[in-house]
Amino acid sequence: MLRPKYLAVAIALATVDLVTPLAAAPFAYISNQLDDSVSVIDTQSGAVVDTIAVKGKPAGVAASPDGNKVYISTPEANGFAVIDTKQRKVIGTVNVSEGSLGITVSPDSKHIYVADWYNNTVSVIDDDSLKITGTIAVGQSPSGLMVGPNNRWLYVANRLDNSVSKIDTQKMAVVKTVTVGEHPFGLTLDTRGDRLYVANVKSDDVTVIETAQMKVITTVKVNMLPYATALALNDSRLFVTNQDDGSVSVIDTETLKEIGLIPVGDKPEGIATHPDDRYVYVANWFDSNVSVIDARNLKIVNTIKTGEGSRGFGQFFSTH
Amino acid sequence: MKKSYLCIPFLPFLFVAVAHAHGPVRQKLEQEITINAPAQKVWGIIKEYGDMSWLPTVKNTTVQGGNTVGATRVLTLQNGGTITEELKKYDEGKMSYAYKITEMSTSKTITHAGAEEKVPVLPVDNYAASIDLEAKGETTVVTWKAGYYRAYLNNKPPEEMNEEAANTAVKAIFTEGLANLKTLAEK
After folding, report:
1. Is the pTM of this model over 0.90?
2. Cys-Cys crosslink for A309: which of A2, A8, A33, B31, Cβ 3.0 to 4.6 Å?
3. Domain segments of chain B as ranges
4. Alpha carbon distances (Å) from A29 to A41, A87, A318, B133
């Protein structure tokens, strides 16, 4: 979700001689579920610069595209925590429902969406008031969430229904549902919002969906227990964490074939691409660290120690 | 006949249980032991996927498929319970293998939140583990790791099926297993 915005910023900076300096390199906010904390990685130094206490087994991460806040879902605290990125501390918690897990923010930073694993709903929260403004009924055990670039369409992976739904955020209702592989979990939308990639935990594959019609283009086999995905290099490569294989599969998005397999840490889960569109960060749950992959040569360039049970499920990069 | 109508609303809940939702927080356990014996000797004791005689809690093991990925073994425990596991990785060179529980017998049935719950012999769900050997001169470091969820598939678990129950049970097996492996290898 950050990429189009960053691109716009980059273009603005390149074309207009702005005096305002660009903030330091972005930060990665990695939820450490077994530590009740969030590690803040300064991507320039490649080191953890802060650790924020977050109660309630933090899991999902959604950085607000405006860079002001990072939302962390806390399933055992029935909602999510709001981190102020300037103070780097929790400035509030929002009670949503009992199984809050998947979380995302719309590209305009106005709405937060939280999927409830047990109640089969997606709640809509207003970014300013932090009040729930709507609840949308979806399929069973909704997991990954992502909003399209025009803020209109929200996509959700319904894990136990083996499906992905497209939601109209204005009508707050599902408009179309498509069957995918078994137990879809993490999903990624391309920059234009045309194509959706869904990792299917149980069938060990990734379903590629064309979003206009919500039709499956193809299914790409990956490795054991694919969990989440991220795009890099102008959407040309898709990276998929294979949880039970300790690896990341690389898929060429043109040929839709697997072109590489990169060993990372044990039980890789959350994955997101740095706003530079080149380095892919992977949270290794068992090893409690983050692997940094160079998307160009598919090599690991850094491994950063985080906290116990690093999950980082969602878009975890923030400008501050 | 009226009674049968009452059952219908419960069907969706049954489906959830069968389709395996799981708790929100995965648990992990890692244990390590240094054995004063060469790695080849230790590996010799554990390398047969279908032979779990080094784990005291296991009475006997049957296997289909030997040491190839996809092989299934059934562990019959001293208490009569059974655990079925699938081999997911096997690396002779690295002296390691990984496996996953695919089925378990029930140790007891409890009532919780108005429903009958079957407590599996190992109170976990979605359990995946690996065992690795590392040669350190004439000694061997054995690492046993597992990731799993609590056995209870919905929120508000009973104490027999919560995270603590899962961790306690897995830890007991690892501790006992590694200690016995050390005893066997150092003989």
Report:
1. no
2. A33
3. 23-185
4. 7, 14, 8, 34
How confident is residue B25, by pLDDT bands cut at 50, 70 and 90? confident
Tally the residues of chain A.
320
Residues 6+ apart with CB under 8 A from A148: A107, A154, A155, A189, A193, A211
Is the pLDDT confidence value at A173 over 50?
yes
Please check whether residue A282 is in contact with residue A241, taking contact to mean a CB–CB distance below 8 angstroms.
Answer: yes
| Residues on A contacting B at a C-beta cutoff of 8 Å | 33-34, 57, 59, 75-76, 98-99, 101, 117-118, 140-141, 159-160, 224-225, 244-245, 266-267, 285-286, 309
Band of pLDDT at residue A184, cut at 50, 70 and 90 = very high
Q: Letter for the amino acid at A145?
A: L
Give pLDDT tens digits for B49-100: 999 999 999 999 999 999 999 999 999 999 999 999 999 999 999 999 999 9
Cα separation of the two ends of chain B: 67
Cβ of B16 within 8 Å of Cβ of A140? The answer is yes
Neighbours of B5 (CB within 10 A): 8
Return the structure tokens found at B135: 């040669």
Torsion angles phi and psi, residue B11, rounded to 5: -55, -45
Using pLDDT thresholds of 50, 70 and 90, give the confidence band for residue B14: very low
The answer to whether A31 and A58 have CB atoms below 8 angstroms apart is yes
Q: Could you give the CA distance from residue A239 to residue A250 in angstroms, rounded to a whole number?
A: 5
The answer to whether residues A285 and A307 touch, using CB atoms and an 8 Å cutoff, is no
Report d(CA B33, CA B39) in Å as an integer.
12
Confirm or reject CATH 3.40.50.261 for domain B23-185, answering yes or no.
no
Give pLDDT, residue B15: 40
Nearest residue to A200 (alpha-carbon basis) of A186, A214, A188: A186
CB A129 within 8 A of CB A94: no
